[in-house]
C-alpha cells in the first residue's frame, strides 16, 4: 500500500466560491426538509464502514442526526432515507440543479486543469502498473464532463461507460464520443468492468455495504476501483466538526474514517493499493472558518498556529497531514483479489 | 526435473542465514511452493524444528525430489551449488552476487545452457521494490521523454563487527561493498538504461581495516549518451539508498528502502515535472508529487515471477543469468579501471 503527497497551489474559493456555496447549502437544507423530513420513513442503520452498532450521537445537520461509530470513528447519518429516495433527490432537487448549473459551471475550467487532468493521469499510471490489460472502464454514480472529456481524449480505454440512476441524462449526449450510458444502479449491470471510478460516491449512498458488494461482483479479478471521498480522519473535519461546511446530508451522509474505509473494502475482498490524503486545503479551510467566525471553538494550538505562524509553517503542517493520511480529501485504489 | 502437474513445486533452501530465512518465509507464503528441505552445515536444529528434512550437505538435498533450489550461501560457495543443482536438472534461484568473478557466472551460464529447460534466476530484488516499479512504469510511459542521466548512492552505516563479516573477507566474498551492495544499484542502472560501454572507476579502502574496497565511485556512459554515476559506500555512517533519474521533462528520486528494520528510511518516490520559467525569476522548485510505500512485496514478487517461468515454461527475462553476467562485467571493469587500487 502506498500514500501520495502533492504540493500545488490551490485556494479553497477556486472550487467553492463562497456566495455560491452558501446558496447551495441553503437549497440543500430546504430540499432535505421537503424530500426526507416530510412524511418519509427513515431507516436506522449501523456503521456503514465496519457494521458496528455501537455509536454515540454526534450532532444534527439539516434535521438529520449524525452518529459517530464507537469502533472505527466513522461519522454517518442514522436514521436515513433509503436508496430510492436519495436517487430521486439527486435527479430532481433544486440544490442539485443549482450545483450543476452554477457551481460546476463557474469552476469548470479550474476543475479540469487542477483536478481532473491529474486524476486521469493518476488512473492511467496506476492501471499501467497494476492492471495493464484493463480496457473496460465505468464511471459509477457520478458524471463529471471535464473528467470524461479528459479520459476520452487520452484514448486509453477501449470502452467507457457511465452507470448511474441518479442523474437525468436526457440533456447530455455522449453518442458521438462512444461513451455508453446506463441509467441504472451498479447492481443491474451484467457486463464486467476492469476499472471503475467512485468520485464522491460512497459519501452519499444509503446502503454502502450492498453497493460495495455489487461493485465486487462487477469488477473482474484484478480489477481496480479508484475512489475519492472525504474522510472524518481529516484535520479540518476533526477541528470544525459540526461547523464544517463539508459535512451535510445527503452529499456527505457517510464520512468514513481511513480505518473504516479500509475495513469496508477488505471485507468485500479488495486489497488496498493506495490510500492517500493528498488534500491541500485543510489548514486553509480551518483558517478561513476561524477568520469568518472567531467564536468557532477550535483547539488553542490550532488557533496559535493560524494566528502566529507564517504561510511556510502552515504549508509544512499541511504536508505533514498528507504524509500521515490526516487530510480530509482522500483518494484510494482498491484491487479486487 | 519433475513434471509439474500439481502446480506445486518442492523447494529446498541451501544456506540458512539472513537470506535463507527470508526465502523460507517467501516459500511458505507462496501458493505454488512447498518447503521440502533446508541445508546448512551449521544448523543445530532437527527436522522436527522445521517440519521438513534438514541436510548438512547440499548434495543430499539435491538427491531428494526437490524441484527448486534457493541458493543463499556466501559468494564463494554459490557457483558450485548452482552448477551442481542445474546439472541435477533443478530450477535454481540464486542470491546475488552470482559468485566472486565474471568467470564464476560464465561457468554458471554454461551449466544453464547444458541443462535447459531448467530455469535460473538471480536475486536482484531491488528491481521489484514498489518505488522502482512505479518509476519504471513512468519511464516506460514516455511521458517524461528519454532518460538523460542517473545518479545512485547506496551505502551502509558500518558498525561494530563490520570487519568480521564474511562479506568483508576477500577469499569468501570476492569483493567489497561494490560487489555486495553496489551491485543492486548497478543492476538498476541497467534496468533503466541498458548496457554501458564506457566505464570509469575509483575504488578505495579509506576507513575499514579490510582487504577490499569500502568505497567505489563509478561513471558509465552508454551508446545513447546516457551517463550513470554510482557511489557505493561502507562509510556513509547512515544506511542510505538514493537513485535519481533525470529525464527530458522531469525527474524521479527514489529514496529510502523498505526493509526488515526500516533503517534505510521510508521508501519514497518523488516525481518532479520540469517547469521552465523566466530565468530571472526562476525559483527552480517545480511541483512535486511524493509517494510513500508501506509494503515491501519485492521478495514475493520476484519469486512469483520465477515460479511463473517454471510452471509455464517461460524464459527468465528479469534478473536472468545475462543480467548477472553483464553487471558482473561492469563491476569487474570498475575494479580494473582504478590502477591505483591496491589492498
Structural topology:
The complex is a heterodimer of chains A (337) and B (343).
Chain A: E1 2-6, H1 12-15, H2 18-36, E2 55-61, E3 64-69, E4 75-77, H3 83-92, H4 94-106, H5 108-130, E5 136-140, H6 145-154, E6 159-163, E7 180-182, E8 193-199, H7 208-218, E9 219-230, H8 235-240, E10 254-255, H9 258-267, E11 270-276, H10 282-292, H11 300-308, H12 311-323, E12 329-336
Parallel strand pairs in A: 5-6, 5-8, 6-7, 8-9
Antiparallel strand pairs in A: 2-3, 3-4, 4-10, 9-12, 11-12
Chain B: E1 9-14, H1 18-29, E2 33-39, H2 47-50, E3 54-55, H3 58-63, E4 68-71, H4 78-87, E5 91-95, H5 102-114, E6 120-123, H6 130-141, E7 147-155, H7 170-173, H8 177-193, E8 198-204, E9 215-221, E10 227-233, E11 240-247, E12 250-255, E13 267-273, E14 288-293, H9 298-311, H10 321-337
Parallel strand pairs in B: 1-2, 1-4, 2-3, 4-5, 5-6, 7-10
Antiparallel strand pairs in B: 7-11, 8-9, 9-10, 11-12, 12-13, 13-14
Helix pairs in contact in B: 4-5, 5-10, 8-10
Amino acid at each position: 500500500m502506498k500514500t501520495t503527497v502533492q504540493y500545488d497551489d490551490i485556494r479553497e474559493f477556486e472550487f467553492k466560491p463562497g456566495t455560491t456555496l452558501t446558496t447551495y447549502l441553503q437549497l440543500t437544507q430546504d430540499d432535505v426538509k421537503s424530500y426526507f423530513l416530510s412524511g418519509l420513513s427513515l431507516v436506522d442503520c449501523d456503521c456503514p464502514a465496519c457494521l458496528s452498532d455501537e455509536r454515540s450521537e454526534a450532532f444534527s445537520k439539516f434535521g438529520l442526526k449524525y452518529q459517530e461509530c464507537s469502533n472505527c470513528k466513522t461519522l454517518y447519518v442514522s436514521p436515513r432515507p433509503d436508496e430510492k429516495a436519495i436517487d430521486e433527490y439527486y435527479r430532481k432537487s433544486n440544490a442539485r440543479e443549482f450545483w450543476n448549473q452554477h457551481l460546476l459551471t463557474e469552476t469548470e475550467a479550474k476543475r479540469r486543469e487542477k483536478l481532473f487532468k491529474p486524476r486521469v493521469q493518476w488512473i492511467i499510471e496506476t492501471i499501467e502498473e497494476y492492471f495493464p490489460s484493463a480496457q473496460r472502464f465505468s464511471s459509477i454514480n457520478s458524471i463529471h464532463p471535464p473528467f470524461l472529456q479528459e479520459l476520452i481524449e487520452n484514448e486509453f480505454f477501449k470502452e467507457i461507460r457511465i452507470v448511474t440512476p441518479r442523474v437525468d441524462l436526457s440533456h447530455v449526449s455522449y453518442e458521438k464520443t462512444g461513451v455508453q450510458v446506463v441509467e441504472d444502479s451498479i447492481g443491474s449491470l451484467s457486463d464486467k468492468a476492469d476499472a471503475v471510478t467512485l468520485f464522491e460516491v460512497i459519501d452519499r449512498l444509503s446502503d454502502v455495504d450492498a453497493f460495495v458488494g455489487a461493485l465486487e461482483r462487477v469488477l473482474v479479478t484484478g480489477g481496480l476501483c479508484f475512489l475519492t471521498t472525504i474522510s472524518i480522519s481529516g484535520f479540518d473535519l476533526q477541528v470544525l466538526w459540526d461547523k464544517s461546511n463539508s459535512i451535510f446530508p445527503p452529499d456527505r451522509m457517510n464520512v468514513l474514517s481511513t480505518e473504516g474505509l479500509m475495513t469496508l473494502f477488505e471485507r468485500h475482498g479488495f486489497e488496498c493499493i493506495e490510500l492517500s490524503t493528498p488534500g491541500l486545503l485543510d489548514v486553509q479551510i480551518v483558517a478561513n472558518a476561524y477568520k469568518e467566525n472567531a467564536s468557532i471553538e477550535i483547539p488553542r494550538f490550532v488557533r496559535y498556529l493560524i494566528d502566529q505562524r507564517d504561510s511556510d509553517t502552515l504549508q509544512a503542517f499541511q504536508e505533514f497531514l498528507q504524509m500521515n493520511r490526516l487530510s480530509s480529501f482522500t483518494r484510494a485504489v482498491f484491487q479486487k483479489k | 526435473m519433475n513434471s509439474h502437474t500439481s502446480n506445486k513445486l518442492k523447494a529446498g533452501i541451501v544456506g540458512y542465514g539472513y537470506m535463507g530465512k527470508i526465502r523460507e518465509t517467501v516459500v511458505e507464503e507462496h501458493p505454488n511452493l512447498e518447503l521440502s528441505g533446508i541445508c546448512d552445515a551449521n544448523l543445530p536444529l532437527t527436522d522436527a524444528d522445521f517440519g521438513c528434512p534438514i541436510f548438512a550437505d547440499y548434495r543430499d538435498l539435491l538427491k531428494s525430489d526437490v524441484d527448486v533450489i534457493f541458493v543463499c550461501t556466501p559468494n564463494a560457495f554459490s557457483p558450485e551449488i548452482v552448477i551442481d543443482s542445474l546439472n541435477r536438472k533443478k530450477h535454481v534461484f540464486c542470491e546475488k552476487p552470482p559468485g566472486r568473478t565474471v568467470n564464476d557466472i560464465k561457468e554458471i551460464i554454461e551449466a544453464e545452457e547444458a541443462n535447459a529447460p531448467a530455469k535460473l534466476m538471480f536475486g536482484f530484488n531491488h528491481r521489484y521494490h514498489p518505488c522502482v516499479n512505479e518509476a519504471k512504469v513512468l519511464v516506460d510511459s514516455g511521458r517524461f521523454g528519454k532518460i538523460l542521466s542517473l545518479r545512485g548512492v547506496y551505502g551502509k552505516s558500518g558498525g561494530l563487527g563490520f570487519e568480521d563479516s564474511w562479506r568483508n573477507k576477500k577469499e569468501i566474498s570476492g569483493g567489497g561493498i561494490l560487489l555486495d551492495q553496489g551491485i543492486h544499484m548497478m543492476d538498476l542502472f541497467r534496468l533503466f538504461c541498458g548496457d554501458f560501454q564506457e566505464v570509469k572507476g575509483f575504488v578505495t579502502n579509506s576507513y575499514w581495516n579490510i582487504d577490499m574496497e569500502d568505497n567505489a565511485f563509478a561513471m558509465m556512459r552508454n551508446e545513447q549518451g546516457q551517463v550513470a554515476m554510482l557511489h557505493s559506500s561502507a562509510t556513509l555512517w547512515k544506511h542510505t539508498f538514493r537513485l535519481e533519474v533525470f529525464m527530458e521533462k522531469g525527474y524521479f528520486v527514489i529514496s529510502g528502502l523498505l526493509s526488515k528494520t526500516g533503517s534505510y528510511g521510508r521508501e519514497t518516490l518523488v516525481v518532479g515535472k520540469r517547469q521552465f520559467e523566466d530565468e530571472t525569476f526562476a525559483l527552480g522548485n517545480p511541483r512535486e508529487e511524493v509517494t510513500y510505500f508501506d509494503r515491501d512485496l519485492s521478495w514475493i514478487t520476484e519469486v512469483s515471477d520465477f515460479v511463473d517461468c517454471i510452471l509455464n515454461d517461460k524464459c527468465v527475462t528479469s534478473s536472468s543469468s545475462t543480467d548477472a553476467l553483464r553487471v558482473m562485467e561492469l563491476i569487474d571493469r570498475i575494479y580494473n579501471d582504478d590502477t591505483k587500487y591496491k589492498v
